[in-house]
Specification:
Layout: E1 4-12, E2 15-23, E3 28-29, E4 37-40, H1 43-53, E5 64-66, H2 67-75, H3 84-100, H4 104-115, H5 118-127, H6 146-166, E6 167-170
Helix pairs in contact: 2-6, 3-4, 3-5, 3-6, 4-6
Length: 173
């Protein structure tokens, strides 16, 4: 299956920007020859970048990855205030970046992620209450113990540090 490319929208430090995300057998993000992930504040910059690579974007309204919310949660991690959708989206994004970039931070994230209990991911996923997986009239609100909160905050802090290290805001080509 050939790669399909999409606009991935994120907010960090109150700035919304976008980068190129792809899917096929393995999901990932486009990385430049210097090992950075180019990001663009404006869609035109992203489209110009995609054209320069000969990439055709699949047009779909992007979902916002709110890394400001992740940053705020990491300042005072608490199990009572876990937004499953936001944290799971961030985890998936950090994982895709870690698979696409080859540096020490990416390797460290992959190591920690690989050793992470699968039940944490499953708990976040279930807490998203996706209609296709959640029976009608049901709602799951996960209860997080201190150890799980510590684990999540450690992994997401590593992912956020990786993101800040490799994602590079550009104005266009």
């Amino acid at each position: 299956m050939p790669r399909q490319y999409y606009e991935l929208l994120f907010r960090l430090d109150r700035v919304e920007a976008r980068l190129l995300w792809f899917t096929n057998h393995v999901d990932g993000v486009v990385v430049d020859p210097g090992g950075c992930v180019p990001a663009f504040e404006f869609k035109d910059g992203l489209m110009e970048f995609a054209r320069s690579l000969g990439v055709v974007l699949t047009i779909e309204e992007p979902v916002l990855h709110d890394l400001d919310t992740v940053t705020a949660w990491l300042q005072a991690p608490c199990g009572e205030f876990i937004d499953c959708n936001t944290l799971l989206s961030a985890w998936n994004l950090f994982d895709d970046i870690a698979k696409s970039v080859d540096n020490d931070r990416a390797r460290r994230f992959r190591e920690v992620d690989a050793s992470f209990p699968k039940r944490h991911y499953d708990k976040l996923f279930a807490g998203c209450n996706l209609p296709v997986f959640t029976p009608e009239g049901k709602h799951y609100d996960p209860i997080w113990n201190d150890s799980e909160v510590d684990d999540l905050s450690r992994l997401l802090a590593l992912g956020l540090a990786l993101f800040r290290n490799v994602v590079q805001l550009r104005e266009g080509l």
